[in-house]
Amino acid sequence: MLVITLYFALISLYSRVFQELQLERYVRLGAILLLAGTAWFSYGVVNQSSSRMLTHFVFELSQNLYFVGLVLTYALWGVILKLRETRALLVQLVLSLGVYFSAYAASYAISNLRPSLYSYVSLLLPIMGCLLPLAWAYAIWRVPEEARIAPARLAVAPR
User: Fold this and answer.
1) Where are the alpha helices (DSSP H) in the chain?
2) Collapsing DSSP states into helix, strand and coil, what is residue 148?
């Protein structure tokens, strides 16, 4: 449930970025199609090799949604840089979500590549789970709505 909620939070951030271009309807439609496609792909993977289908489907869907969330978050960061979005609150929310999705996607990748290392990585996941709400709480309480930042200056290194 958490990853699906975070997925919809990410889509609402997309809607906020594309609000000026009047593309919210297409963002929502694309998000629903992407979620349905990810669920269908997860079902296809589990259907071929599982006897306990529901448990494996939830795990596979969660794993795939963390990866999709990771890709969508970095794509959103690219859009923010391209459109020169300056709302500091939006930038803070997107970047903290990117770190969160990256940590969980990396943990699933490590568990698939080297299952023996997952016990060590799993110790860090509760910490990452606590840092996302803390980062969002800081952003909501401490960053004024009218605060602006130039993220394009963050991405370009001075020569």
Assistant:
1) 2-17, 24-49, 53-83, 88-113, 118-121, 125-142, 151-155
2) strand
Q: What is the DSSP letter of 157?
A: P
- Name the nearest CA neighbour of 93 among 125, 135, 145: 135
Cα–Cα–Cα angle for 116, 124, 89, rounded to 5 degrees: 140
State if pTM tops 0.90.
no
Token readout for 89 is 């609150």
Q: Tens digit of pLDDT per residue, the chain (159 long)?
A: 888 889 899 998 888 888 878 888 888 899 999 999 999 998 888 877 656 677 778 888 888 999 999 999 999 998 888 888 888 898 899 999 999 999 888 888 888 888 888 788 878 888 888 999 999 999 999 988 888 877 656 665 555
Q: Which residue has the tokens 């999709």?
A: 68
Q: Give Cα separations from 18 to 12, 26, 27, 91 (angstroms).
A: 10, 10, 8, 14
Between CA 127 and CA 119 the distance in angstroms is: 14
SS3 87: strand
